[in-house]
Amino acid sequence: MFDLDGTLTDPGLGITNSVMHALRKLGIEPPAREELYKFIGPPLAESFEVFFGFSREKAREAIAYYREYYAEKGIFENRLYPDIPKALDFLKDRGYTLLVATSKLEIHAKRILERFKIGGYFDFVAGADLEETRVEKADVIRYALGAANAGACARAVMVGDRKHDVIGAKKCGLRSVGVLYGYGSLEELRQAGAESIAEEAKDIPGAVLQLLEKE
Q1: I want to staple 25 with a disulfide (CB 3.0 to 4.6 A). Which of 65, 80, 172, 198 is the partner?
Q2: Cα(70)–Cα(131) distance, rounded to whole angstroms?
Q3: Under DSSP, is residue 168 helix (H, G, I), strand (E, B) or coil?
Q4: How far apart (Å, rounded) are the C-alpha atoms in residues 111 and 164?
């Protein structure tokens, strides 16, 4: 099971541009782009509330402005990480069921995967919904598992770059691989409880197999 932002693709430019757009709409001068990279990974509402002290109502307003830019431009200000197709090929060839579990809107996630021509690798793409009933990572993971067969659920491994991926996996009884080329640090991933680490995308298959071989 793969996270999307910071794991399969690098969305840094599009996400930060979308946050800047939302802040300007609210009359707030955005900080330096590097300060906004922390928005990559967590649910948007949580980020606006924690990082800018927004109320839930103001956070929803900010999200609406964010999506205004993201749906038109930000979604394509993105790039595929090198070696991701090779890693997916390796796992698919070995018979693994591949899923996506992202806090991004599901409709946007599917568009991104198709743009980079990797949508065909995944049996199911799980993301957040517009009604905000499925936003937290653990909820998205449970939703993804519900679409997978029993064998996949019993041996599922979450691959992601932020603590939210690792914590969400633990809440669902899954093991996890933390990747270091995204937006989370080794310290963050280790503290959250990642059982295996992949420094680069090409290291993902080995990190996944390392966990499965422990069985």
Answers
A1: 65
A2: 18
A3: helix
A4: 23
**What whole-number distance in Å separates Cα of residue 145 and Cα of residue 151?**
10
Q: Could you give all domains of the chain from N- to C-terminal order, each with its CATH number?
A: 11-76 (1.10.150.240), 79-212 (3.40.50.1000)
Catalytic entry in 3, 5, 10, 203: 3
Whether this model's pTM surpasses 0.85: yes
Cα–Cα distance measured from residue 117 to residue 121, given in angstroms and rounded to the nearest whole number? 9
> What pairing do the DSSP bridges indicate for beta strands 175-179 and 157-160?
parallel
As a whole-number percent, the residues of the chain with pLDDT over 70 amount to 96
Question: Residue 150 in contact with residue 144, Cβ under 8 Å?
Answer: no
Q: Is 51 helix (H, G, I), strand (E, B) or coil?
A: helix
Q: What Å distances lie between residue 159 and 7, 10, 62, 127, 205, CA to CA?
A: 8, 15, 29, 15, 10
> Do strands 196-198 and 175-179 pair parallel, antiparallel, or not at all (unpaired)?
parallel
- Beta carbons within 8 Å of 30's beta carbon, 6+ residues apart: 19, 20, 23, 24, 36
Q: Quick: pLDDT tens for 7-20.
A: 999 999 999 999 99
| pLDDT for the residue 133 | 77
